[in-house]
Design a protein that fits this description.
Blueprint lengths: L8 E10 L8 E14 L2 E10 L5 E10 L2 E11 L4 E6 L9 E12 L5 E12 L7 E5 L1 E4 L2 E10 L5 E8 L4 E2 L4 E6 L4 E10 L7 E11 L4 E12 L5 H4 L1 H23 L2
Amino acid sequence: MVFIAHSVLSRCLFALMLLSASPATAGTIQIETQTSVTVSDGIPEVGVKATNKGNEPARSVRIQLIFLGKSLARPGKGLLREGESVAVFFRNIPSPPKPGAYPLITRIGFQDIKGRPFSAVSCTAVSIGQSANYELGCLGRTASISRDGLLRFTATNSGSVSRRARASLVLPEELSTSIPWKDLVIEPGKEEVLLFEISNFSALVGAEYPVFCCLEYDSEDAHCTAVGNGSVRIVRAENWFRRTRPVWLGLAIVMGAILAACQFKRKDP
C-alpha cells in the first residue's frame, strides 16, 4: 500500500554549548536534522539527514524514527565531525488506519567528547493518502529553565465547529514531563492555552532544545495534525541571595536611613 501522498521536508536545529575552563575555548555541537518522505517505485521511504553545524565533533550518532507508535532505529556514524552529515533511510513504515496527516518524530542521539549522552528531536506532520483540512493550529514559545519550568503552547480553532483534540508533547531525552498529553475541546474562533510542566533530567547549562506539541484530531473524513514548535534554553540556576538581592538592597537602604536618623537625633541638643 502506497499511503504517503507527497514529499515533506522539515528542518530542526539543536545547539549544545560545551563549556570549558576558558570561555575562549568553549565549543558547540549543533545538530541540524532534515526529514523527507517520498515514494520510490511504489515503496514509501523516510530519509533522515543529520548535519553537525557546530565546531565540536559528535560521537556515536544514532537515528530513531517514531511513527504511529512504532519506533525504528538505525546506526548513524561513529564520529560526526564539524560540517559533516550522515543520512539513513527507513522503509518499514506502518500504515495508518485512516487517511490524513500524522506526526512523524525523529530523534538523533549522540555523545560529546566526554561521552555524555545527548539528543535532538524534530517533528513534522506527514500527509498520508490525502491532504487534511487544517482548522486547528498550534504555536509554541521559548522557555528558560534550570531544573523545572513551564512550556506554553497556544491552540487555535479557525473553523466553524468545535473540535475535540489531543495535545501531545514531544521532548528530547534530557527533558521529562509527568503529563505528556492533554485532551481539550476548542470552540470555533477561540484559542486554548496549554501549559506543560517539564523537568531538566540531564541537560547542560547553555544547551537549547527544540520542543514540539502535536495537536491531533479527526475531521469527517480524515485525521488531522497540527504541529507547534517551541524551544527550551537551559540556564544557570541563581542562588537564593542573588534572586532576593533587590530586597536586601532595599532593606539596607531603609536601615541606613533609620540609623542616620537616630544618629541625627542623638546629636540634636
